[in-house]
Design a protein that fits this description.
By secondary structure, the protein is of the alpha/beta class. It contains 14 helices and 18 strands. Helix content is about 30%, strand content about 25%. The strands form three sheets. The protein has a nine-stranded mixed β-sheet with strand order 10-18-11-17-12-16-15-14-13, with helices on both faces. The chain has a six-stranded mixed β-sheet with strand order 2-3-1-4-5-6, with helices on both faces. Strands 7-9-8 form a three-stranded antiparallel β-sheet. The longest helix has 18 residues.
Length: about 500
């Protein structure tokens, strides 16, 4: 048995001032055939799980390219076509194959391609024919299109937000593809469109119990897989929004009924799933009144994981104006400031302008006399079993004693190793300021005395009612109050 494996992944914020090209994939993660590391990345766990099964069972895994770019703006047409054609060429050279396993994100948008993953999967199907089994993993913050559903046999999305189960998802894709190839199952899929856009963290109710029940359903009777697509509100594409996809063993009626039942229930959670997001002043008031330590305060919208630059100074400026001192702030994206710090060297004190460089809505740059506390080449942080590159980083100490990590590679805050790898003990600080919507939760909750979510208005399109989508034609909540009634009319 021969199975081909590849991964092309990024999350595209079509409103972002950034643009994404091949250098962004190289900077984040690019592994040619056979060079994927032993540890998985967020979207490439199908590689490491495929290797384990192939070694154990004696079938051939043919590895293609695996690559990931940190979420950003529109991907250039040249870059997408280069990566797509690279993988298609590798698959063509590997044929004949019995199966194709893909690690995708599901929210990539390129110039002239609103559905990159659908384009890739459909081209793979045209190349291998109808009998080859195609399976793919997706991030739930993606867009589920008919082109993908029609051309892939197996689709499994991470269930957890934060995405702590990306390895388990890769394992499930590999397992279901193998079972299909061996004739043990005949996958049949059904999709329900929830017609809503919402933030759906699974670290809190009502999503926690909902996801646990969905997990318990898998493997019972004919139910093979239950996945939820949350959607990605910063992606202006026709299929934006939450959907449910259920796969059964040759039982299409049951798949359709379960998808509908779960989808209707999920729609019922609208407006009740996200944590309380406080404005900066209210968040700082709450933090100053608390005896907890450390208090983790997260800027949910200036989050590079959502495709924005991550160089907003709005929150940091508010912190400085309050006179806080016992804090660490990680991170602020500013390659130019990092370069200046490396030129000055550790221990140097200098006037530095940093942050606020890439857009009109991220605050003005900060000018301060800073001391360079630590410099680190090729810094990194953990995200579960994955290692996330931060590029060259500098820790600067501000007047008053606050510490700020400046990074070269954009990345959201995943794990306290973000601080400890830069010589900052996160447990020793009263306040930890980070940038993440919820991916941080699993790791930081282990050390946090309190967690506060902050709504800092900035470059992220955080309100569907005012985002001004051009490609979304379906009625969606909260743009309309009752999308199902409008759809029926």
């Amino acid at each position: 048995m021969r199975i081909f494996c590849a991964s092309i992944a990024t999350e595209t914020n079509t409103f972002s001032p950034l643009r994404t090209d091949f250098s962004d994939f190289q900077e984040s993660f690019y592994a040619p055939p056979g060079q994927h590391p032993v540890t998985p990345t967020l979207c490439s766990a199908v590689f490491t799980e495929g290797r384990l099964r192939a070694a154990k069972e004696g079938w051939d895994l043919i590895e293609g390219t695996a690559t990931w770019a940190e979420p950003g703006g529109l991907v250039s047409r040249e870059t997408y076509e280069q990566l797509r054609d690279e993988v298609l060429g590798q698959l063509r050279a590997a044929m004949p194959v019995d199966g194709v396993i893909l690690g995708l994100h599901g929210a990539m948008v390129a110039q002239d391609y609103l559905d990159c993953e659908g384009d890739l999967i459909s081209r793979i199907r045209a190349l291998v024919g109808p009998k080859v089994v195609i399976g793919t993993s997706f991030d739930p913050h993606s867009h589920l299109t008919a082109l993908r559903v029609d051309n892939a046999d197996i689709i499994v999305a991470f269930k957890e937000f934060p995405h702590t189960d990306f390895v388990e998802t890769g394992r499930a894709v590999v397992d279901l593809v193998l079972r299909t190839l061996r004739g043990e199952i005949t996958p049949t899929k059904a999709v329900f469109d929830c017609h809503m856009i919402e933030v759906l963290p699974t670290s809190r109710e009502p999503m926690r119990s909902f996801i646990d029940r969905a997990k318990d359903m898998e493997g019972t009777g004919d139910i093979l897989s239950v996945s939820f697509i949350h959607g990605f509100m910063a992606g202006d594409v026709p299929d934006l929004g939450a959907k449910v996809i259920v796969t059964t063993n040759n039982n299409p009626a049951e798949a359709k009924q379960i998808a509908r039942d779960l989808g209707v229930e999920l729609f019922g959670f609208r407006g009740a799933t996200r944590p309380t997001f406080l404005k900066p002043e209210a968040a700082l008031d709450q933090a100053l009144a608390s005896d907890a330590k450390p208090i983790v305060l997260t800027d949910v919208w200036d989050n590079p994981g959502g495709g924005v630059p991550g160089d907003s100074t709005i929150l940091l400026r508010a912190v400085m104006e309050r006179g806080l001192s016992d804090y660490a702030f990680g991170t602020l994206w500013d390659p130019m400031a990092v370069k200046t710090c490396f030129s000055a060297g550790e221990g140097a004190t200098l006037p530095l302008r940093f942050g606020g460089k890439t857009g009109a809505h991220a605050g003005a740059p900060i000018d301060a006399e800073v001391t360079v506390k630590k410099l680190e080449r090729n810094a990194w942080q953990y995200f579960g079993q994955s290692i996330v590159p931060l590029g060259d980083c500098a820790v600067i100490v501000l007047p008053g004693g606050g510490e700020v990590i400046l990074n070269t590679n954009r990345s959201q805050s995943f794990d306290p190793s973000l601080f400890s790898n830069m010589g900052i003990d996160p447990k020793s600080k009263k306040y930890l300021f980070i940038k993440s919507t919820n991916h941080f939760y699993d790791a930081f909750a282990k050390i946090a005395g309190e967690i506060i979510y902050i709504d800092v208005h900035g470059p992220y399109p955080s309100d569907p009612k005012t985002n001004g989508y051009r490609h979304v034609k379906r009625p969606l909540w909260p743009i309309v109050d009752d999308p199902f009634a409008q759809k029926a009319s």
